[in-house]
Design a protein that fits this description.
The chain has 151 residues and is mainly alpha-helical. Helix content is 74%, strand content 0%. The chain is built from 5 helices and no strands.
Length: 151
């Protein structure tokens, strides 16, 4: 007796799904490799980190990008990389500590702007990062005071 497998999905649908999964895996590999690279570089700048690993991180990121390009026929979209490397957490706007978390992330963002600007000798951008960090710090203090008054 022969058994026949019946599926509502056509071979084309199955192949599309498989291809989409491969692309998603490639995107995840790029994200992971870039995150490892950036995190290690930041740690190196602080006096820690593993300088000898930078080449390996770069190699993994490059290989993942080549695989993505092989699968899609093009490089990663401009919008995709910043989204995948964002340090912004998903914020629950109904939470009482929303402003604290939001301002904390703005302080980190300002500090990162300072670091990037110092690396490139960009004083104007460094000042903008400094301003962003201090405004966020003041806003955080204000938010904490408001929160304490309500409690």
């Amino acid at each position: 007796m022969d058994l026949t497998v019946v599926s509502e999905r056509s071979e084309v649908d199955v192949e599309r799904r498989r291809a989409a999964q491969e692309i998603e895996r490639a995107e995840d590999q790029i994200e992971g490799a870039l995150r490892e690279l950036v995190a290690n570089i930041l740690r190196i700048m602080r006096g820690a980190g593993k300088g000898y690993e930078v080449g390996n991180h770069l190699g993994r990121a490059y290989e993942a990008m080549l695989e993505y390009e092989r699968l899609t026929g093009h490089g990663m979209w401009k919008a995709s990389v910043p989204h995948r490397l964002s340090i912004r957490q998903s914020l629950d706007t109904s939470a009482a500590d929303y402003f604290v978390t939001h301002e904390e992330e703005d302080m980190i963002s300002g500090a990162m702007q300072i670091v990037a600007s110092r690396l490139l000798g960009q004083r104007t951008q460094e000042s903008a990062g400094d301003r962003e960090m201090h405004i966020a710090s003041n806003d955080r203090c204000d938010a904490l005071k408001r929160f304490q008054r309500r409690a």
